[in-house]
Design a protein that fits this description.
Length: about 575
C-alpha cells in the first residue's frame, strides 16, 4: 500500500482505498491542513482531519467535501485495503465506524453523478449540433450582404449587388438601409416572440423560425430593386427574432449555470464560423459561370440549407425535459432535477405577468443592453463591412473573400477558450470587460496605424476575437441572472433588442464616401468597446454587493440548494448572482 507522510495535528488518520482509480485529483481549499500528498497514481483517497472533522471522498473525477459534527464515516465502493495512522493517533480521539446507511447514500451520490454525466453527453450530442448549425445559417443569412457587396463574377465580370440591384449606389446609403432593415424588425419582434415561445413546444417553434428565415434568404436572390431587397430583409428579421433570444432560454432548461457559458460559446461561436465559412463559399461562387449574377447564387446556397435544417429540427430537437420523448424515464427524472436544482418556479407553458413587469423595471437589463449595444455596433460593422475594410488594404475582390476566413476562425477558438475560463471561474463581468478592451485595441490600431498592412490585418483579429467572445459570455450571464423562466423570456430579448440598435448604428458607420480610412466608424466602435467594458465592471460590482448583502441578511445558501423564484424571480432572498 502506498505510504503517506504528513505533518500531523492532534490526530490525523489516512485511509487509502486501492479499488477505485483516481482519474483526476483536484484538491479543494478545505484540504489545506494536509501539506504533503504524494505517490497517488491509481488509488482513490479518503483524507480525514480529526481536528476539523472533514471527510474528502473522490467520485470518479472530483473531490467532494462533507462535514460531520460527531462521527466520521468511511466508505468505499469495494473494500478498504488498509488504514495508516499517525503515531499521535489515540483510540479515544475519535470514533470511526462504517455506517451502512451513510455508505449507501454516498454510493447513490456516486451513481447519480455518473448518470448525470451520461445525460449531459447525450443532451450535448442531440442539442448542440442542431442549435449550432441553425445559428451558422442564421448568421450567414443575415450577414451575407457583406460578401454580396464585393462579389463579382471573376470569369465573366458580372457586377456585385449594389451595381446590379441598387443602381450603382455611389454613396453606399441604399446598401446601408438594406442591411439595417433586418435589425428594425428583429428588434421590434424579439420580446413578444420570446415570451410567446414559452407557450409552444421548442422543436416546433424553432423549426418554423428556421424554415421562415431560410425562405426569406432564398427569396433575396430574386430581388431586382431596393424595395424587393428591403422587404425580404424585414421578414428575415421577423423570423430570426423567434430564434436568437429563444436559444439561451431553451439551453437553460437543460444546462446548469456551471455549464451554460461553454454551451453558449459553442452556439455563438458558430457566428464566427459563419464569417469564415461565408468567405469560403463566396470565393467559390465568385468563380462560377452563371446565367445570372453570382451574388444571387450566394443567397440561394446559404438559404436552402436553413429550410432543410428547420425540417430536421422538427423531428430531432428535444422538447422540454418533462415532455421530451428523447429521454427515458430515469433520464427525464435527472433532467428535471437538474432544471430545478438552482431554481424552481414558472416552468412549462406558463407566463408570470408580474415577472414581465419586474423585467421592465430592472435597471441591470438596461445596463446589459448598453453593453450589448456597444458590442453589436462593432459586430454589425464587422459582419457587413469586413470585406470592404480588407479591400482597402489593397487586396483583390477574390482574395478579400479568403482573407476574411482567418480572423473569424481565430475568433471561434477564442470564444470557446474564453467561455471555458469564464465557466471555470464562474465569472462573467471581468472576462467581458477584458475581451471588449481587446476589441477596442483593434480599432485603435486601425485608427492610428494607417499604412502598416500587417498591423491593420492583425487588428481585425483583435476586433473579431474580442467582440465575439464578449457577446457569447454576456448571453450566458443573463441566461442565469434573471431567475425565473418568464423573466428570462422577457429580459433576454429586452437587452438583445436594445443591443441590436447598435447594429443599426453599425450599419451606417462605413459609407463608401469615407473610405479608405473610415475614421468616424473606427472611432465610434473603439469608444463603444471601451464604454461597454466599463459598464461590465459596474455590473460586476453591483452583483457582488447584492450577493454580499443577501449573505449578511439571510446567510450563505447551501450549494445547489433549490431556490423558489416563483414569486420574486432573481430577487428571492436565497438567489445568488453570477458575477
Amino acid at each position: 500500500m502506498t505510504q503517506l507522510h504528513t505533518k500531523t495535528g492532534p490526530a490525523h488518520i489516512w485511509c487509502l482505498f486501492t479499488y477505485l482509480r483516481l482519474q483526476h485529483l483536484s484538491i479543494k481549499p478545505h484540504l489545506a491542513p494536509f501539506h504533503e500528498i504524494s505517490n497517488l497514481v491509481s488509488s482513490s483517497l479518503i483524507l480525514i482531519d480529526i481536528q476539523e472533522l472533514w471527510l474528502a471522498y473522490s467520485v470518479v473525477d472530483d473531490i467532494r467535501m462533507q462535514s460531520y459534527s460527531c462521527h466520521i464515516f468511511l466508505f468505499n465502493v469495494d473494500f478498504a485495503s488498509g488504514i495508516t495512522a499517525s503515531k499521535e493517533f489515540k483510540g479515544d480521539d475519535m470514533k470511526v465506524e462504517v455506517a451502512t446507511e451513510e455508505r449507501a447514500s454516498l454510493e447513490a451520490s456516486g451513481a447519480w453523478f455518473m448518470e448525470e454525466k451520461r445525460l449531459i453527453r447525450k443532451l450535448d450530442r442531440r442539442i448542440l449540433p442542431i442549435a449550432c448549425l441553425l445559428y451558422l445559417f442564421a448568421y450567414l443569412d443575415r450577414s451575407n450582404l457583406g460578401n454580396a457587396r464585393v462579389l463579382t463574377g471573376t470569369n465573366d465580370g458580372k457586377p456585385p449587388l449594389p451595381t446590379d440591384a441598387l443602381g450603382g449606389d455611389p454613396t453606399g446609403i441604399l446598401f446601408d438601409w438594406v442591411n439595417s432593415a433586418f435589425f428594425f424588425s428583429y428588434i421590434l419582434c424579439q420580446v413578444p416572440a420570446t415570451i410567446l415561445s414559452k407557450l409552444v413546444a421548442p422543436r416546433i417553434w424553432l423549426a418554423l423560425a428556421a424554415i421562415g428565415w431560410g425562405t426569406c434568404s432564398t427569396l433575396m436572390s430574386t430581388g431586382f430593386d431596393f424595395g424587393g431587397l428591403m422587404t425580404t430583409r424585414v421578414f428575415l428579421g421577423i423570423f430570426e427574432a423567434g430564434f436568437g433570444p429563444a436559444i439561451p432560454l431553451y439551453f437553460s432548461l437543460f444546462y446548469t449555470k456551471e455549464e451554460m457559458g461553454l454551451r453558449m460559446a459553442y452556439w455563438f461561436g458558430f457566428a464566427a464560423v459563419a464569417g469564415a465559412f461565408g468567405g469560403i463559399v463566396a470565393f467559390g461562387i465568385q468563380n462560377a459561370i452563371l446565367p445570372f449574377s453570382n451574388w444571387r447564387l450566394l443567397f440561394i446556397v446559404e438559404g436552402l440549407p436553413a429550410i432543410c435544417l428547420g425540417i430536421m429540427t422538427f423531428f430531432f430537437l428535444p422538447d422540454r425535459p418533462e415532455s421530451t420523448h428523447y429521454l427515458d424515464e430515469r433520464e427525464r427524472e435527472i433532467a428535471i432535477a437538474r432544471m430545478n436544482r438552482g431554481t424552481s418556479g414558472d416552468v412549462g407553458a406558463v407566463v408570470n405577468r408580474s415577472h414581465i413587469s419586474m423585467a421592465f423595471r430592472d435597471w441591470r437589463i438596461y445596463t446589459g443592453g448598453v453593453i450589448y449595444f456597444a458590442l453589436n455596433c462593432s459586430l454589425a460593422s464587422t459582419s457587413a463591412f469586413l470585406p470592404t475594410i480588407l479591400k482597402t488594404l489593397g487586396f483583390s475582390s477574390a482574395r478579400v473573400q479568403l482573407m476574411t476566413v482567418p480572423p473569424y476562425a481565430v475568433a471561434a477558438f477564442v470564444i470557446v477558450l474564453g467561455s471555458w475560463i469564464s465557466d471555470r471561474l464562474q465569472s462573467r463581468g471581468i472576462p467581458i470587460a477584458l475581451a471588449s478592451l481587446v476589441g477596442g485595441v483593434g480599432y485603435l490600431i486601425l485608427l492610428f496605424v494607417p499604412t502598416n498592412l500587417h498591423a491593420r490585418y492583425f487588428a481585425t483579429f483583435c476586433i473579431t476575437s474580442g467582440t465575439y467572445t464578449s457577446i457569447g459570455i454576456i448571453i450566458a450571464w443573463f441566461a442565469h441572472n434573471l431567475g425565473s423562466e418568464t423573466k428570462k423570456a422577457t429580459g433576454i430579448p429586452m437587452f438583445m433588442a436594445i443591443g441590436q440598435c447598435g447594429s443599426i448604428l453599425g450599419s451606417h458607420l462605413f459609407p463608401t464616401t469615407e473610405g479608405p480610412r473610415y475614421i468616424k466608424g473606427f472611432a465610434v466602435c473603439c469608444g463603444l468597446e471601451i464604454f461597454g467594458a466599463l459598464c461590465a465592471l459596474v455590473m460586476t460590482i453591483s452583483y457582488r454587493l447584492d450577493n454580499a448583502l443577501r449573505n449578511k441578511l439571510h446567510g450563505v445558501p447551501k450549494e445547489d440548494a433549490r431556490v423558489d423564484v416563483a414569486e420574486m424571480a432573481d430577487k428571492a432572498p436565497t438567489f445568488r448572482y453570477i458575477i
